[in-house]
Design a protein that fits this description.
single chain, seven-stranded mixed β-sheet, 22 helices, 18 strands, globular
Length: 725
């Protein structure tokens, strides 16, 4: 149809244009890069320019086509085959120490799912996604029916209640209407407002519901948003958003090995003791299957903000509509495989930059995760080519292809738990790419100490629009804030997203290991999330025709890795971090009565930490300006600054969720970001005893890190002064 964007296969001309972009930037070599002396910055710029010419849209497309050729859910034969393919490719590219690591985990695969309405009329849900014109992949017989990862098995026939988004406040409204969901099946919708499906499941379980049906309403991701696939990026009538309902906001990873790796032979707790395994049945639906259920409901009319995009009146139900749900799951132990490869550092092999993307997909994974996987493969090919030609990074780059992210952040969590002690000694940072691209708008996440470095790097890359990536990012962020009526002006300090929740593979590294993290992605209209329609066709027509943003992601990911790997002094900005922490504390007190909690000691400690950060920043700048950095001094400074993030860990963890140990960053049960998690949750519960304890933990961590920065500054200023004599 004329309204559909034409398929644009990559061309030689496009590739040459990409090279021209890189060449135009190479003529503007950066005279300074955070963490580098001037001569080292010039050398780094040369390396980056050579690196950026290697990733190719044609190769991005080829890899993407390969990874999206078949469904490859976690633990499947195809996903395991792709693990071996990645390992073989990395060996051919010259990566070092390529290994496939096995983790034996609690499995979650469907044997059968069934849903029918038994009253007032009969309707059997098809629980399938129908093909659309022009997309041959949707005829693949390996596409599964609807199912939810970690659903309980069971069978029930019961009345159906519409519970809006399935959040606690929704059940409060139902109670006010005299509707009790205990013993009933609840029907809820995705994304209004957004909450992780696992939180919906836990809430329904706590309310006594027997089963949970989750559907995609066209108001959120369908025809109410715009044209649907195959004519636009939004979800068609039959699209089903699969997903797990694991309670990984309590403990991620294998539910039977909480806090330690599920290597073969590992100790395993009984299923009954596993807090992250739901006890409720759950099933995702298309709006095609949800519509007959909603259309036949009786009971009070749902409130205006509970109404959806279907041309019917939504009622709360609870009596007339009865449904029969039957789910049988296979929970036998199964192996997940993490692929690991390295480019060993030429000078500092025991300092690591870890980079990762998950491989497993609910079906084809066009955006999630195969766009990221394609970008990963092009980045490793380019870095491997440089290494073969003799250009190795100073520090070691560790590349990982995770398994089981979609089930419970499993592969990365098990790997992180297995190597936690070593990572705490050696790791500089983790850079995550889950979805490389679903559109043109860049979204960059960073712990605040790395935010300036991320902003700086975007100046050196060219967006397909012709602007620098920095300019394009700034413009799209400004537009998004205007659309959402946010008054805050976009600045370099707030351009990166420093509010980091959960829901992807960075979680173990930030919240358990204590590593600084960066998260990268390009975003756009994307209504086929976790469905069979998220495939090669969708990407070529709507997500990234021409694979230019895939290529840019490979370039950006690699440039960030190279800057961390080659920096003379690691580019942490702790004054920025202090300012961010102050924002967290100020936000905590907004609209709350905190008479029983004195925040002044924390704010004073933040001021001291900020001052120490500024002193260290100034000393680092002066040391770099001398042109040479003593190797022993650099090791002292770098190892010290790597320790700062570890010092934000509380060994006892968040009260009630001890696996999550970071005192600055956490996540709500919805996956949404939660700053100062232990303190914030205590304040929200008005548990002032716990709040005071958590406040003191935060204050003491600030004091400890201030002392550390002052010690590093003293070492740096002393030796720099001696060198200047």
């Amino acid at each position: 149809m004329s309204s559909r964007q034409p398929m644009l296969p990559p061309t030689i001309a496009l590739f040459l244009l990409t090279l021209a972009f890189c060449s135009s930037l190479s003529t503007q070599a950066q005279t300074s890069i955070l963490g580098f002396t001037q001569s080292a910055a010039a050398h780094e710029t040369d390396i980056e320019n050579r690196f950026k010419t290697i990733p190719s849209p044609d190769e991005e497309r080829r890899q993407h086509h390969l990874f999206t050729a078949e469904p490859h859910v976690a633990g499947s034969a195809r996903n395991n085959e792709l693990a071996r393919y990645i390992a073989d490719q990395w060996r051919q590219e010259g990566l070092d120490d390529v290994v496939i690591r096995r983790y034996d985990v609690y499995g979650s695969n469907p044997k059968s799912t069934f849903l029918e309405m038994t009253a007032p009329v009969h309707y059997r849900a098809i629980l399938r996604e129908l093909p659309i014109p022009g997309d041959p992949d949707l005829k693949n017989k390996s596409i599964s029916s609807a199912w939810s990862g970690m659903s309980a098995s069971g069978e029930v026939t019961a009345p159906l209640v519409y519970a809006h988004s399935g959040n606690p406040e929704d059940y409060d409204l139902l109670r006010k209407q005299g509707i009790d969901v205990k013993g009933k099946v609840v029907l809820v919708r995705y994304s209004n407002p957004y909450s992780y499906r696992g939180f919906k499941a836990l809430t329904a379980e706590r309310e006594g519901a027997t089963a949970l049906l989750i559907y995609s309403d066209p108001a959120e991701d369908g025809f109410k948003k715009g044209k649907v696939d195959p004519n636009g990026p939004w979800g068609p009538e039959y699209h089903i958003q699969r997903g797990a309902i694991t309670y990984d906001f309590i403990v991620p990873g294998d539910p039977l090995t909480p806090g330690w790796a599920s290597v073969p032979g590992a100790k395993r707790i009984p299923v009954e003791e596993a807090v992250s395994i739901p006890k409720i049945m759950a099933l995702p639906l298309s709006w095609h299957d949800a519509k007959p259920l909603l259309a036949n409901m009786d009971g009070p009319l749902a409130p205006d903000d509970w109404q959806g995009g279907l041309p019917i009146k939504y009622h709360l139900g609870g009596k007339r509509v009865r449904v029969h749900v039957k789910i049988e799951m296979d929970n036998s132990t199964q192996p997940y495989y993490v692929v690991e490869g390295r480019i060993r550092g030429a000078q500092l092999p025991d300092e690591w930059i870890v980079l990762g993307n998950h491989r497993d997909a609910w079906v084809f994974g066009g955006v999630d995760p195969s766009s990221g996987t394609a970008s990963l493969m092009e980045m490793t090919r380019a870095l491997g080519k440089l290494a073969k030609a003799g250009t190795r990074p100073k520090r070691t780059l560790v590349f990982c292809s995770w398994d089981g992210e979609e089930v419970g952040l499993t592969g990365s969590t098990e790997w992180g738990e297995q190597f936690a002690d070593e990572l705490r000694k050696k790791a500089v940072a983790y850079i995550n790419v889950d979805e490389a691209t679903s559109g043109p708008n860049f979204h960059g996440q960073a712990v605040a100490s790395l935010a300036p470095m991320l902003v700086e790097a975007t100046h050196s890359l060219r967006d397909p629009s012709g602007k620098t990536l920095y300019e394009a990012w700034n413009e799209s962020s400004t537009h998004q804030r205007q659309e959402s009526k946010q008054l805050e002006e976009v600045t370099d300090s707030n351009l990166p997203d420093t509010r980091i929740g959960s829901g992807s593979d960075h979680t173990v590294f930030l919240n358990f290991v204590g590593m600084p993290i960066l998260g990268l992605g390009f975003e756009g209209p994307y209504g086929v999330y976790h469905s069979a329609y998220d495939d090669f066709f969708w990407m070529n027509h709507f997500g990234d025709p021409g694979y230019r943003y895939h290529t840019l992601m490979s370039q950006l990911w690699g440039v960030l890795a190279l800057r961390l790997a080659n920096a003379d002094l690691l580019p942490f900005d702790f004054a920025s971090y202090a300012d961010n922490i102050r924002q967290f504390v100020n936000e905590l007190s907004k609209g709350k009565d905190l008479n029983q909690l004195d925040l002044k000691p924390i704010l004073d400690a933040i001021t001291d930490f900020e001052a120490a950060g500024k002193r260290l920043d100034d000393s680092v700048s002066r040391a770099l300006a001398t042109g040479t950095i003593d190797a022993k001094l650099a090791a002292t400074i770098n190892h010290g600054t790597m320790q700062v993030e570890r010092n934000w860990l509380n060994p006892d963890g968040i009260p009630g969720r001890p696996w999550f140990k970071h005192i600055l960053y956490g996540a709500r049960f919805t996956y949404a970001h939660l700053e100062l998690p232990g303190l914030s949750e205590a304040v929200e519960k008005q548990d002032w005893t716990t709040a005071k304890q958590q406040a003191e933990i935060l204050r003491q961590a600030l004091v400890n890190n201030t002392k550390l920065l002052d010690e590093l500054n003293s070492s740096l200023t002393t030796q720099t002064a001696e060198a200047g004599k």
